[in-house]
Amino acid sequence: MTQRTMAVVMGLILGCLTSTALAGGGPDIAELFGTATESSEWSTPDYTMHAQYAIDGIIGVPPWADTNTGDLTPWWQVDLGSTFVLTEIDVWSEPGWSDRLNGGVVSILDSTHATVWSSPLPATGSAAWLVQTFFPPVVAGEFIRIDNTKEYGIDLSEVQAYGEPAPEPATLGLLTLGGVLMIRLRRRP
């Protein structure tokens, strides 16, 4: 049995678990609210690897989200639909193809597509499976993006995001103001 075949079998075994069953806590907001896009889509005469497959809640079982092999600047991203304070991002490679994420970067972008946080994906060699969990500092973002400089594409099984809806700026300001006032009230004799 080849390494790739073993990875697919392992994915089929794990695939019975949905992203919610494996989550550290709370619903996967990428699965619930997200719309995924990618720089290109890998396809055969039988099927196309759509970006949306990486947020379908199914881990390790085809179909996956893959960009074209010849894509010189591959990227994949999910629009969460609104701004969330993100506390955890899990990136699952396609079984047997984790090395295609080597040199990649996962980023959180705000509603204007400005990067508010980013982290490199780990170098994995040719590991059969990659699950990388990121715990960004408290940042709010509307997009999660994976970029790579490898021309052989990005192969994803699942990308999961956890967090809470971001408060409106006016509400956040009132909460901050209320916290300051309460501190002053407690300090008065």
Task: Tell me the layout of helices and strands.
Blueprint: H1 3-14, H2 19-22, H3 29-33, E1 35-38, E2 65-66, E3 75-93, E4 105-109, E5 115-120, E6 131-134, E7 139-147, E8 155-165, H4 169-187
Antiparallel strand pairs: 1-3, 2-8, 3-6, 3-7, 3-8, 4-5, 4-7
CATH class: Mainly Beta
Total number of helical segments?
4
Give the helix level as a range of percent.
Answer: 10-25%
Q: How much of the sequence is in beta strands?
A: 25-35%
Unreliable spans are 1-23, 172-189
Q: Major beta sheet, specifics? A: 8 strands, antiparallel
Please give a quick description of this structure.
By secondary structure, the chain is α+β, with helices and mostly antiparallel strands.
Structural description of this entry:
The protein is of the alpha+beta class and about 190 residues long. The protein has one domain (about 5-185): Sandwich (Jelly Rolls), CATH 2.60.120.260. Helices cover about 20% and strands about 30% of the residues. It contains 4 helices and 8 strands, in the order αααββββββββα. It has helices spanning about 5-15, 20, 30-35, 170-185, and strands spanning about 35-40, 65, 75-95, 105-110, 115-120, 130-135, 140-145, 155-165. Strands 1, 2, 3, 4, 5, 6, 7 and 8 form an 8-stranded antiparallel beta sheet that branches. It is globular and about 45 Å long.
